[in-house]
Amino acid sequence: MPRPAARPSSASSSASSSSPDPPSSPPPTLAAETPAPPASPDAPRPAPGPRTPLHTSVSLPHFSPPRVVFSYDAKLLDEVLRAQLLHERCVGLDIEWRPTFISGAPQHRVALVQVCSPRVCVLVPVRHVPLRKLPSLVALLEQPTTWKVGCGVREDARKLHRDLGVVCAPVLELGDSATRLQGEGSVRFPGLPEDEAVRPGIKGMALACGVQLSKPKSLSRSNWERRPLTQQQQIYASQDAYVGLWLSVCLHRLATGGSVDFREWLAEQAARESASQTAKVAEREQRLKEWGVGGSATPGCFAPHLDARACIREIA
Asked: Distance between CA 6 and CA 276 in Å, rounded?
């Protein structure tokens, strides 16, 4: 979703800019400063035919991915992260790793970390650049004043902790927030009919906001440990991080019309998601107590040898 500040590797970019958020924390400005290059066949495009956006009173931000910095030079990456991202109040976050094609095999370690502001998206090949040489990346991921947003970002944060020992927080899972806000009647997505539920993945949410993404499996399931990454891989990876940031601004505008401080809104959504997750855990624990942990044959369980906790994982 690559053209570095110093052209560190084969990369392409389209420049966009936004000044740092003032203390009042408005949502990031996502407007292009210079024309984007001609779109590739895989570039995001407006949703087709029956998905024509409905008329609403809310104006969504222009979809304009920023320039991309990709390099294997740790010093360059750290300087860009420190100078252009550490001050941000919200960044889009995504990660990639080499896929496993054997059923039941463990996942490979994180290969690429993508962090995006309205002005720049930095692709960090952590499989090839030691984390100890990237203090600004660790600081950004762990910085409590910088929100990390995206679709699947909660699981990404867990994998970053498992693989790299980084405590990535705070994070907001946009798919859960979108589903809940639509269910409450708090938002109406301009790219969907009123009676159609939003799909919580990045592609479904982008479509709900009027942008159709191309996510071919030939890229999503490609070798993210490759050195160097292809230009197509760089575009795909940077797009995912940017879309997370763009969607957070879209959701904020749809839910509040821009009348609520952006960071306060992010914190409120995260708190509500946390409460929802806590309620789900409590419900599952209650079911465990009712069934009895360690029982051999549990109602609703298809495999009699599984214990109650495993059964709940199956049906949850």
From this structure: 45
pLDDT of residue 43: 57
Contacts of 159 (CB under 8 A, 6+ apart): 95, 97, 107, 110
CA dihedral (200, 205, 208, 212) positive or negative: negative
pLDDT at 276: 81
**Cα–Cα dist 14/65, whole Å:** 6
Q: Are strands 147-150 and 90-97 parallel, antiparallel or unpaired?
A: parallel
The count of residues in the chain is 316
Nearest to 245 by CA among 129, 108, 122, 100: 122
How is residue 133 annotated by DSSP? G
Kindly list the distances between the CA atom of residue 227 and the CA atoms of 71, 129, 134, 160, in Å, as whole numbers in the listed order: 10, 11, 19, 21
Would you state the pLDDT for residue 7?
Answer: 41
Other CB atoms closer than 10 Å to residue 54's CB: what's the count? 13
The 3-state DSSP class for residue 263 equals helix
Instruction: Give me the average pLDDT of each 10-residue run along the chain (316 residues).
Output: 42 40 59 44 49 57 96 98 98 97 93 98 98 98 98 97 98 96 94 94 96 95 97 98 98 94 96 86 83 53 40 40
Residue 74 backbone phi and psi in degrees, to 5: -60, -40
Residue of 93, 85, 95 lying closest to 140 (CA atoms)? 85
Placement of tokens 């993404």 in the chain: 213
